[in-house]
Amino acid sequence: MRRCTLILLVIIFSAGHSTFASGDVSRDRPDVLLIAIDDLNDWVGCLGGHPDAKTPHIDRLAARGTLFTNAHCQSPVCNPSRASMMTSLYPETTGIYFLNPPIASAPVAQDATPLTVRFSQDGYLVRGAGKLYHNRENTQYISEYAGAFGGFGPIPSKKLSPFPGHPLWDWGVYPERDEQMPDHKIASWATAQLGEAPEGPRMLCIGFYRPHVPQYTPQRWFDLHADSALRPQVRDDDLADLSSYAIDLTREEHVAPTHDWVVQEQQWEPLVLSYLASVSFVDAQVGRVLDALDASGRADRTIIVLYSDHGFHLGEKDRWAKRSIWEDGVRVPVVVVAPGTQAGQVCTKPVELIDLYPTLLDLAGLEPDAMHEGQSLVPLLEDADADWPHMARSSFGPGNVAIRSEHFRYIRYNDGSEEFYDHRRDPHEWDNRIADPAYTDAIATHREHLPQSYHAVLGQNSTGHKAYAAAEQNREPAGR
Predict the structure, then answer these.
(1) Is 313 helix (H, G, I), strand (E, B) or coil?
(2) Which end of the chain, N or C, is more open, meaning fewer C-beta atoms within 10 Å of its C-beta?
(3) 40: which strand partners?
(4) Rounded to two decimals, what is the model's pTM?
(5) Can 134 be counted among the known catalytic residues?
(6) Catalytic position from the list 57, 134, 259, 465
(7) Is 446 a catalytic residue?
């Protein structure tokens, strides 16, 4: 939420029915267009995460509906975040904490009906392109999947940056034209779909890859930010009030460049510039899709949800990429537009990606699923200030959990160490107030929202598995 994948769900009408379908649906049901933007943080104009973010199309979408400024993913990693959103189940329930296993290999999750399958079963034609689920699950759960259109490519023959590590960790000007970018091709596919004249309900799913690394975009997007390569606000002693476990969990066995390397190699500004350029590029692709939707004549009968799969650090807390349960790692942009609901709303209530599935069922007039752990956001779409007793929960491995309310973030790690931040005074989470007696009651309230149990970790050998294992191996009891 803050930062990393944005998914736009738009409900659109279409003919036919999915090969997964089990029944007919009234033609007057809304369509669904699902657009995912990978690794998008709050560096979006309407969220104000960076003063020079240029996202006019996401901004105009937010003006049409409700912008959720306090939305959070359930895990700061692609696979568990997407699995959680598509099943409306927490990682603590399924055991999917890291980059594997897939949904079908988790006994609890495989009993759930993924979002796109559910809409197929209820008579929707479901089509998709790009990154929505993780890897091969797109073909498994999207009845008509058009492909990745090149995924994270195109890739130059030699790295553009001086970073010697993971091949995806690269940044710079590449390729020459927008038309060579997979996201441009995905947007072109989507605009063609929106140009069709459907007879029945359709869910159209779009998954954009940028600004996920490699952060490549053509020169014109870098030129747009030529004078904008500003570092985020940081504090030199930001880690001084954190436990060694918290630091190990977010440093050990990670593939992103270390903060020391970024500073030593003078790559902070180039990385910020490439991220801003990538965000503006993908925003333009969102704009092309919205233009096609408006031209279709069905915009006023379309539900739109835009979100990211997790956040992204660009030097905050001396780290890069995702895989943290601080605000920068788990806060995501979410926009919901639905016929008959308020336009131009800004909602500060804590919401979660697992809320999107039950929200779509509610908006589409479909029966709720008793297995879901998320909540329908319809009350907040009707009134952004409505009573909302829920808090948002994020985790990175069992025992490492963040609880977010409207004004506070509470974190408990598996070694027993804790953090507490007051966002009214400390939006950057610089001051850990866990020992401040002024917050004793608030901390106790947040502790009550911790999971009662944790499913064992499933899968093995991914970066997340290794980072979690390293933190566990190094840990000392809290208070020592």
Answers:
(1) strand
(2) C
(3) 4
(4) 0.94
(5) yes
(6) 134
(7) no
